[in-house]
Every structure is written in structure tokens, then in C-alpha cells.
Amino acid sequence: MRKSEQGGRRQIDIGFIAGVAFLIGVLAFSMRAEAEPLDTIVVTATRVPESADRIPAAISIVPGIEMVVRGAADITSALALVPGVESPAGGDAGPSSAVPAFLGLHEFDAFLLVVDGVPWGGAFNPAISGLNFNDIERVEVVKGSAPVLYGATSFVGVVQAIHYPAGAATNEADLAYGGYGSVRGSAAYALPQVGNYRQSIAVNGQSLGFADAREALKNEAALYRGALDLGSGTFRIDADVNLVRDAPASPVIRTGTGLTTLTPIDANFNPADARIDENRYHLAAGYSQPAAWGTWDTLASYAYSSVTDVRAFLHRDLSGTADTQHQDRHIEDGYFDIHLTSQWFGEMTLIVGADLLYGRGRQRTSNGNGGYTVPLDGSVLPPPTTAVPVNETGTLDDKRLFAGQYAQYDWKPDNRWDLLAGVRLNEAYERKSSSDHTLPPPVLMSEVVSNTRVKPTGTLGVSYRLWAARKDEAVVYADYRNAFKPAAIDFGPDYRPDLLSPETTQSYEVGLKSAAAEGRLTYQAAGFLLNLDNIVVATSSGALANAGREKLRGIETEVRFEVVPEFALVATASYHDARFTNFLFFDGASSVDVRGRELPLSPHMLTSAGLLYTPEHGFLATVVARYIGRRFLDDENISPVGGYPTWDANVGYSWSRIRVTIDGTNLTNRRDPSISSEFGSQSFYLVPARMIWLRAGYALR
């Protein structure tokens, strides 16, 4: 690129940030009211309880009680009213999973999923299938790169699910019956305290059907939490198990400028024994104790997953021929963190610590390339993989060790200013051993590669309270972050021996957080700019590759008005502009320069609105509407698809201990493409069909 072009683009970027900052400043000074700080407390950004309004970052909170009333039992419905976030259900990981997208980037592993302080999925991919939303106290969403406290794990957002602590719970049982023969049940209860030992348990299970008669989801989960005052500190332990049995759907292939019409919308071309079965076991223990210089916190976690993944994908030529795969996978995740939190004069907080993230993934794959051919109308049940000749076998053994030392400083010189600064030294080691054996004729390939990288990252943010009195206020903020993340592994069926380059990003954000009408009206707006290098994308062949450079920028807004304590109105609107700035895309025949093209499945406009009438007793109702704007299905931007709305709603009645509701999702029954497959070449999963539930809840207290 010529220097003049580079300079012009830098001027455009600076102008964009300046324009957003000016707009937010005008909004802030135009909102005049009697004004005190917001009382919403969060922990994700700083690891210590802090008011969300003071933190120089865009933060959204989803209360657990609101999720219970709405019937939000998964990450898709939980994040429905978070500004600028898409979280369509399904994808390559099966119907129990989802692919959240933040800031316009649709990449499965670009965000960090945290559960009660533990990175969920560890050094590999977010373990959404093992995420349990039963007995949730709240969900915190932080936009942008993960804080330095969590390491080399995220670029665009952090989602932390926080369960009720040991000794507390929703103390409620819930049972629901839905369409396609679906059944769901859950219960959470605070167990009797034994001395000073507090404990609680949460269990849930479900069996879901779908419009595709062969697609199904079954899972059972249990979480036990215990806490004990021990010595001068507190010891806690979490133990949970999640058993998932997915029967996956088939993605729809793109031909030309749109999705093919040769295959019915719910046709399933997977083998007769198709399944994604996962057993996940997790144990975490932590200890917090006061020390001379502050508070020491130690947390250790270990998770083990065994996965059987049996599927098939149609060839892109729509001949009806499919490649089968039978994978056996074992994943270990280890996490250890120790840090000291020191406070001086109630104004300065320093967190110094170190952490270690360990992951090992082992996989054996048996492929039947061109294994069978079936009619495209889906009328024939394909054979099981046991009846398909295996002509390729592969192995993978990947070890990852991500270590880091970090320090984060939070200084509040007065009740207006808040300065947050952090630095981290990342050490990332990876060793990958892979092999591939094909026949006929027999060909054996194997390779062992390893890499060690050391890279510093950091963040700097500042917020300023323009005014505050009682529960009203206006706060403006700005922050800068740079992040580093080793490339993900998709555990696909193909032989991919190389290690991709690590992904890096630099991000800038300015924003406004405000409250009026005695805190009943809250408003936040943020403008962001991210420059990303080496982002991992799926190519036309299904393989993963580094995508050169990308730029994400946009504005996100959120307004919430509590008319009365039990009646709230929520509205969000976002504008995203996500583009390639340097990427040669291989379309199967030649390389195409897609510089300046929009990222696939990244809409400019995202809006949502919610009406939440949730009294403790009596009639209740909620409505959540979302609109996903026009977007492209491909890197070359030759396959546009129009925008679409979705509607979720429920209505019911609550007595003193019993609540009965009728819940509905995707009431308009839109079946638009929502997730790109990384395995099936140029193919897409659709929005799940309309689902209606009859649900009853019973208070156990």
C-alpha cells in the first residue's frame, strides 16, 4: 500500500474516533438532571467488586431473575438484549452450541467464556455445549479484548456466567414441555448449612426435538458448590458434570449468489449413526485469605472432556456424495491463578498475579471420503459409518501452555476520575503432532511442530464523571487495549500439520454511561475501532488460514427504562463496519484480493427491543424483538442476503409459589442463514424453527 493511502486511512480512523467522541460528549452534556453513582456491581473487568459505571469499558449485565422469567435457558436467549451481540444457536459443534459474534466479528473462538472465574474451554475453544445456565445470578458481558487478568484469550468480548454462591440459590424447580416432543426440567436448592460450611446444588436436563426430525439434543448437568470459612480465609469448591448427546443438523450449501434450493430446508444428510456425544467433568477449588499487603486469592481448575463426533458433509458440487468422519477426542483443560489485591486509602487498588492455562487435545479420525451418495431431497437415510469404507485415518495431539504475569492498577483520585492501567507478559508454548494415512495407494504423512512466543500486552483506560447526584449521573470514558492470542484449533477431520500465526489486535474505545430519573433511566453508548492481524478464517476448502488484516469499527447504544420496578423497556441499536484490509482469498481456482470487502455474516445494523413486565405475583409478560441487517455470505461479497427479524415472547401468571408461562422463540419462524460451517465447504446453518413451551415453576423455599 502506498504511504499516501496509509496516511489517508489513518486520518479517516482518527476522524472516526474523534467524531464518535464528539457525539458522545454532546449527548452527555445535553442530558441534564439531578444527579449519584449507579449501584450495579461487576467483577469481570477488575476481579474485584466495582460499580459498573466507573469502569472504562462497555459492560452489559443480564440479571438471572430476568432470565428465569423469560425462560432464557441458553446463551442465545440470555444475550438477546445485549447491544451489538449476535448469538445464533447451533453450528459445527451441534445444536447444544452457539456462535456468539461481537463487534461484527463472527469467529467462534474470538471471545472468552468464563464461568465463576474459570476460562470455560481453557486453551482451546469456548465450551458452550458444557455451559449450564441453571441457577445463574447474573451474566456479565465486557466488550473488547479480555482484561490482562485473563491472559491471551479474547479479542472482541468476555462473557462471564456467575452462579449463586454456595449456600444460596434460586430455590426453584422448573418443568417445561415444548414442540417436537421437547421436555426440559431444572432445580436449584441451597442445602442445609453444616457448621460454617455452606453448600448448594443445581441439576437440570432436557430432551429437545427440532423441525429436522433427525436433529436432537439431550443433556443432563449437575453443579455442586461448597464454601468453608477456614483459618483466616474462605475455601470454596465447585464440582460439575455435563453430559451432552447431540444429533447434528446438516448445513445448507451456497451455490452462486445464494443458498441452494435443491435440498429441502430441513434435509439431513448425516450418517445413520451421526452424533456429537460429550462427557465433561470439572472440578475447581479456590482459597481467599487476608494478608499483610491485601488479599491473596488462589484458584485451581481441571476439566476433562471425551467427545465422539460422527458426521458427514455433502460435496459442494451437489452430486449427493458425502464425506464421513468418525472422531474420538479427549481434551484436558487446566487453569491456575494466584494474585494479590492491595488497596490504599480506598482510592488505589493494585492487583499483581500470575496464571497458567494448560490444554491438551488428542484426537483420532477415521474418514470415508466419498463414503456414500444419497438423493438431495433427503428421502433416503444414509448408511452408518460402520458400513462405509475408511480410506483415511488421522491423529492429532496438541499441547498448549499459556503462562502470564500481570499487574493492574486502578486509581480513583476523587469521586470523578477513575484510571485503569494493566500490563501482562504472555508466554505461549504449543507442540502439535499430527499424522495422516490415506489409501489407495497408501500414503503416510506425519509432522511434529512446536513454537514458543513471548509477547507483552496491556490496557489503559480512564473515566470521568461529569456530574452525579443521588442516583443520576453521566460518565464518559476512553480506553486502549492491545491483545495477543495463539490461533485456535477446530479439531476438524482434515490433515493440518502447521501452526497458524498468532492473532493480534489493537483497539480503541470511547463511551458514555448515564442515568436519569432517579436511576430508572440508564443509557450507554460506545464507539470502537479494532485493527486485527492474522485472524483465523475458514477457506473455501474448509481449511483454516490466517486472514491478513481486518478492521472493525462501529457504534453501540443501549437504553433501559424502568417505568416501575416490575416493568422495564429496553432498546439497543448498533452500527458495525467490519472489513478486510489485507487478505488474498482463494476461491478454489485462484486468489482474489478482498481488501475493503465486508466480513461474511457481519451486518451493518443490529437492533433489539424488549418489553419486560415481571411482577413477583400476578400477570406477567415479556417480548424480545431483534433485527439482523443485510449481510454477505462470502468473502468476495457476491452473495448478499437480506435482513430478518426474530420475535420471542412469553405470557403467564405467578402465584405465591407457582408460576405458569407459555414461552415462544422465533415466533415468525424465520429460517435465515446464521452460522457459517468451518467444515462443510461454503455451507450455512439456519436459524432454528419456531418453538413453543408450556412451563411451570415452583418455589422450593
Account of the 3D structure:
With 701 residues, the chain is mainly beta. The chain has a single domain, classed as TonB-dependent receptor, beta-barrel domain (Maltoporin, Chain A, Beta Barrel), CATH 2.40.170. The protein is built from 3 helices and 41 strands. It has a 22-stranded antiparallel barrel. It has a 5-stranded mixed beta sheet with strand order 3-8-9-6-7. It has a 4-stranded antiparallel beta sheet with strand order 16-15-40-39, with no helix packed on it. A hairpin with a 5-residue loop joins β27 and β28.
List the helices and strands and how they pair.
Elements: H1 3-30, E1 41-42, E2 50-51, E3 59-63, H2 64-70, H3 75-78, E4 85-86, E5 101-102, E6 112-115, E7 118-119, E8 136-143, E9 157-163, E10 172-178, E11 182-194, E12 197-209, E13 216-230, E14 233-247, E15 252-255, E16 258-259, E17 275-291, E18 294-314, E19 321-344, E20 348-373, E21 392-411, E22 417-438, E23 443-469, E24 472-485, E25 503-516, E26 521-533, E27 536-538, E28 544-546, E29 549-564, E30 567-582, E31 584-586, E32 591-593, E33 605-613, E34 618-628, E35 631-632, E36 640-641, E37 644-654, E38 658-665, E39 673-676, E40 683-686, E41 691-699
* Average pLDDT: 90
End-to-end Cα distance? 67 Å
> How many separate domains make up the residues?
1
**Strand residue percentage:** over 45%
Q: Tell me how many strands there are.
A: 41
The first-level CATH class name:
Mainly Beta
Which stretches of 5+ consecutive residues score pLDDT under 50? 1-12, 16-38
- Basic shape: globular
| The CATH fourth-level homologous superfamily | TonB-dependent receptor, beta-barrel domain
Helix and strand composition category: mainly beta
CATH architecture term: Beta Barrel
CATH topology: Maltoporin, Chain A
